[in-house]
Amino acid sequence: MLELLSRLFSPVYCDAPEPWQIGFQDAGSPIAEGIQNLHNEIFFYLIVIFVGVGWVLGSVVVNYSQDKSPIVYKYANHGTLIELVWTITPAFILIAIAFPSFKLLYLMDEVISPSMTIKVVGHQWYWSYEYSDFVNDDGESIEFDSYMLPESDLEDGQLRLLDVDNRVVVPVDTHIRFVVTGADVLHDFACPSLGLKIDCCPGRLNQTSVFIKREGVFYGQCSELCGVYHGFMPIAIEAVSMEKYLSWLDSQG
Amino acid sequence: MPIAPIVGKLRKRLITDLSMGLGLGFAGGYLFWYTVHKPIVHQRDEYYKKYDAAKA
Ligand SMILES: [Cu+2]
């Protein structure tokens, strides 16, 4: 019972999916906030349309049934004016939805003067990361693979199918650019709570940027079907303060 | 059997249906906006206010 309650009303910010979750994860970046706000704005229209159409449909069923209206009114078969109304009104609703959507879309596309770049490569079936802005003592850029932790290796508190051996450690409050590609087949680098989702195409580079607003571990999964272990190549992004990030970099040397 | 003239079939219900449909629709929409969306944004803003205060 207590466990159920703690699952329903989790007091900790968990940037990973929760059991029986139907909403969003807590946003960790301005883009994710924008996405969730846009979703709710569109959801507003959705409720209006759902209730409005539902009501009219119900009214037609009740008031124009065989019993109440046995003879069909001849002008009920065709009416130019009403057809114009029900064609043009949805068009305006679509425009009202489209504009904020495009605004966000182009905002997401913008990579604003990134302070650092991380290369992300999707493999069958793990991720590899390269911090080419930083070099170790031998003058090589920092590079590592990130595999999912098998269930037998999990320690208390680690998430099944989500935790990895080497997390992507990044600083908070920094514009970070991800340059992504695939080594073999299509993969997709995604992290819901950061509003990240970008295809990794073999032979092609994609870029996206993220600005993480708070410390935490943000989980995502490969989001393009890439083979049998597609579901077993999670992404774990650990956002830390700048000092911790620098000492982590040091330890990579 | 004589049949009563069929008049005002659309007009009779149109006002009621449109106002009830859209009225309830907007009511539902605003209910969602103020009971679901706003609290989430408020909670988020409060969190960052505290978070930034702790950082500074
Ligand atoms: Cu994959």
From TrEMBL, chain A:
Membrane topology: Multi-pass membrane protein
Family annotation (InterPro entries): CcO_II (IPR045187), CcO_II-like_C (IPR002429), CcO_II_C (IPR034210), Copper_CuA (IPR001505), Cupredoxin (IPR008972), Cyt_c_oxidase_su2 (IPR014222), Cyt_c_oxidase_su2_TM_dom (IPR011759), Cyt_c_oxidase_su2_TM_sf (IPR036257)
Required co-factors: Cu cation
Gene3D superfamilies for the chain: 1.10.287.90, Cupredoxins - blue copper proteins
Cell location: Mitochondrion inner membrane
Annotated GO MF terms: copper ion binding; cytochrome-c oxidase activity; oxidoreductase activity
The entry's keywords: Copper, Electron transport, Membrane, Metal-binding, Mitochondrion, Mitochondrion inner membrane, Respiratory chain, Translocase, Transmembrane, Transmembrane helix, Transport
Catalysis performed (reactions): 4 Fe(II)-[cytochrome c] + O2 + 8 H(+)(in) = 4 Fe(III)-[cytochrome c] + 2 H2O + 4 H(+)(out)
Domain Cytochrome oxidase subunit II copper A binding stretches: 113-251
Domain of life: Eukaryota
GO CC annotation terms, alphabetical: mitochondrial inner membrane; respiratory chain complex IV
Entries under PROSITE patterns matching the protein: COX2, COX2_CUA, COX2_TM
Cofactor note: Binds a copper A center.
Gene Ontology terms describing biological process: mitochondrial electron transport, cytochrome c to oxygen
Domain Cytochrome oxidase subunit II transmembrane region profile: 16-112
Main location: mitochondrion
Transmembrane annotation, as ranges: 42-64, 84-106
Function, as annotated: Component of the cytochrome c oxidase, the last enzyme in the mitochondrial electron transport chain which drives oxidative phosphorylation. The respiratory chain contains 3 multisubunit complexes succinate dehydrogenase (complex II, CII), ubiquinol-cytochrome c oxidoreductase (cytochrome b-c1 complex, complex III, CIII) and cytochrome c oxidase (complex IV, CIV), that cooperate to transfer electrons derived from NADH and succinate to molecular oxygen, creating an electrochemical gradient over the inner membrane that drives transmembrane transport and the ATP synthase.
Family indicated by similarity: Belongs to the cytochrome c oxidase subunit 2 family.
Protein known as: Cytochrome c oxidase subunit 2
TrEMBL record, chain B:
GO terms for cellular component: mitochondrial inner membrane
Statement: the UniProt record of this protein carries the keyword Oxidoreductase: yes
Subcellular location, record wording: Mitochondrion inner membrane
Its membrane topology: Single-pass membrane protein
Matching CDD domains: CcO_VIIa_fungal (cd22888)
GO biological process, one term: mitochondrial electron transport, cytochrome c to oxygen
Keyword Protein biosynthesis: no
Chief location bin: mitochondrion
Record's keyword terms, sorted: Membrane, Mitochondrion, Mitochondrion inner membrane, Oxidoreductase, Transmembrane, Transmembrane helix
Pfam families on file: COX6C
Membrane-crossing residue ranges in chain numbering: 18-36
Superkingdom to which the source organism belongs: Eukaryota
Family as reported in the entry's similarity comment: Belongs to the fungal cytochrome c oxidase subunit 7a family.
Protein name: Cytochrome c oxidase subunit 9, mitochondrial
Species whose genome carries this gene: Dioszegia hungarica
Lineage: Eukaryota, Fungi, Dikarya, Basidiomycota, Agaricomycotina
